[in-house]
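Fold this: Ketosteroid isomerase-like protein
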Amino acid sequence: MKSNEEIVREAYRLAEGSVLDGPGFRALFTEDGSFHDMPNAQSFRGDEIPLALTGLAGVFPDIHRELLELHAIGEVVAVELRIQGTHLGAFPTPIGAIPPTGNRIDVPTADLWYLRDGKIERFHCYNSANVLLAQIGAGPDFRSAIEAAAGGPAAPTGRG
């Protein structure tokens, strides 16, 4: 039987843009396994799990994960990594898609993998979504947040 570290390394390999094997990735999970994109409050369960891969690869087709540190502690594997790629696809948002910019991303991330009997039971991805958005040119809109909180237009500050 493969070690938990080997299983997790295989999951990363299958999620690479040059490989992108959704069914193979899914097969590494338990029947009721789950994938949680923590910063974006999105969860994928069972056969939905490959959607997390194809969604991200549709925006960053050359997606690559540079593994910096990997620590297997019993049934948990903790990984520090960087998610890298080029913004070549539309990035969906609640108010419409951000068109491709061609910008490169290099996003600090920490992943926790929980395994049971040689299968992934839960995967929690903690990526720096604010860094990703800034790198594709979608910085925060502080003015709108201030206006919404104040119940009207924000006073000019001289800054955008």
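The first helix runs from residue 4 to 14. Helices lie at 4-14, 22-27, 49-59, 129-135, 142-150.
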